[in-house]
Amino acid sequence: MVHFLLQDTQSIFNKVLPALIKVSVVLILFIIGRKFDAKIRKEEIIRNWYFKVIIEPNLGILDDFLKNSLLSIKSSIDVLINSSTKMTMKDYIKLKSIEISKFSNIKREFEFDFVEIIRANHNDIANEVIDLLLKLEDKVGNTFDKDKLLKEDSDSLEKEVRNFKTDLFKVLYKPIIKPAGNNQ
Amino acid sequence: MTNKINILKYRGNKSSLFTGRTQGVTARNELKLNDKDKDKNKYVFIIPKGTTSFNPSFFLGLLFESIKTLGIEEFQKKYSFEYEDENIEIKTNLNDNIEDGIRNAKNSIQGNTSFFNLFNNK
User: Measured between CB atoms, does B76 come within 8 Å of chain A?
Assistant: First the structure.
């Protein structure tokens, strides 16, 4: 009797086990698929937020920064060229400091109005943008500091500002092409 | 004890500006600021007369590691700046430059906030 019971149990088990395995595999694949979809959706939301809420509405601020930078640089170079032979060295140093600080003020406003918005969600991207800004600031300051400033220096700084724009967009584009979750 | 640090030699030949993160790091190494960060002394950087700008790039090369090591409060207790130039406008500009440097250092050290952390359950 026990022998027959054992045989029946084994027979039922042999019939049920393959089905159980199939169902388990399907369930596991379903769960993995759902988790993967959720991860992709989350990355998509973060990418869309970054582009639609942070970058796109603030492109006007970027345009203003570039425009104001070029105007300020051109004006400062004109002032420094016109004043270089008419002033004492002490007064010229003071004037140079003032003209350099005009660009620094424009850069600072751009940091507060644009870069700090990016920093809220992408500290690494904000740091890269700051690095670009600091390099541009150095180029502007070193140009203004030249012994003999020429009108052509305005053109060369204009190129630097345009290069800055290109490099900036390369940096800003990074979170759109790479997966979210690597932004520390 | 407060010690003065003269940084004229790092201003660059015939230059009126302090620029460049690399140059700041060079100054940092030559001045042995890593060791100074650990001692109990206070230091004053003397910004020489004739300086038109103390760019944040140079500031970060010189002092970012100090801010990272000490934290901003201890850093500001330990290190300060004096300007040899008496002109108010130049002093104001140099002070703005240093504030920019400190702000950039603080922002660089902080982590992400708000939206990103929300989505990563932080």
Answer: no
